[in-house]
Each structure stands twice: as C-alpha cells, then as structure tokens.
Task: inverse folding
C-alpha cells in the first residue's frame, strides 16, 4: 500500500518536525514532509542539469588560446559538479523508494531511528550518526 495516499494535505513546518514527540517518528505527515523536500531537491537538480546541457551546447569557440582554456576549465568544473549532482539524484531516488516501502528514517545497519535532525540535514541519510561515524573511522584507518 502506498503510504503517501494517506498523508494529510498540510505538511508539518520545520518547527513542528523538530518539536514532534518520538511517537510521531515517521508518521504519514513526516513522511509527506520528507517526500516533498526530496522531490523539491530532485527538481532543482534536474533544472540545473538542463541548464548545464543548454550552456554546453552554446559553447562558443574563441581564437585566443587562454580564453579557450579558461572556457574549457569552466566547463570541466561544471561537469564535475553535475556528476556529483547526478550521484545525489540517485540517492534521492533511493530515499523516495524507502519512503514508499516504509524503510525511510531507519538505519539500514542497526535498524534504529536515524533521527529527524539528521534527516533534516541530510534527507538521503541511510545510517544514524553513530553508524556513519563508525564507517568514516573505518575508512580513515584503511586510508580511503
């Protein structure tokens, strides 16, 4: 069953999200809030990608080698940013799928609540802070 069909019309405010009791964790209203936030972020990324494509298609050649190098460097940087955004789009789609299947807001490793504060800061989070810290410490020890 799609959990979003039971979501009320009015989304909670940020203040309501932060003040909500633990018993409201991942209620229909909270899931609707994060669904809207993730969709808004996805739409902004898709718009930016579209603008980049248009910008790159309008590439003007210039006879001056230093101007041409500067333009190419700008385009390379823009493409790197878009690549990071492409990866974020994938994470957003995964988060939206977790909302649909009822796993959003719960740590994939421990099964514990990720927490509203963390999800507000990083709506695509899949782990709680403690688990994420452990992963990062392990990565540092491995030199990666």
Result:
């Amino acid at each position: 069953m799609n959990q979003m069909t039971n979501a009320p019309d009015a989304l909670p405010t940020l203040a309501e999200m932060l003040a909500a009791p633990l018993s409201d964790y991942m209620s229909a209203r909270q899931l609707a809030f994060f669904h809207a936030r993730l969709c808004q972020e996805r739409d902004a990324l898709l718009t930016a990608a579209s603008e980049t494509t248009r910008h790159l298609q309008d590439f003007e050649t210039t006879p001056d080698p230093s101007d041409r190098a500067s333009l190419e460097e700008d385009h390379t940087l823009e493409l790197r940013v878009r690549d990071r955004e492409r990866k974020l789009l994938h994470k957003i789609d995964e988060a939206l799928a977790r909302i649909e299947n009822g796993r959003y807001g719960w740590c994939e490793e421990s099964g514990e609540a990720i927490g509203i504060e963390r999800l507000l800061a990083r709506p695509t989070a899949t782990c709680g802070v403690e688990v994420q810290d452990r992963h990062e410490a392990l990565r540092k020890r491995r030199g990666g």
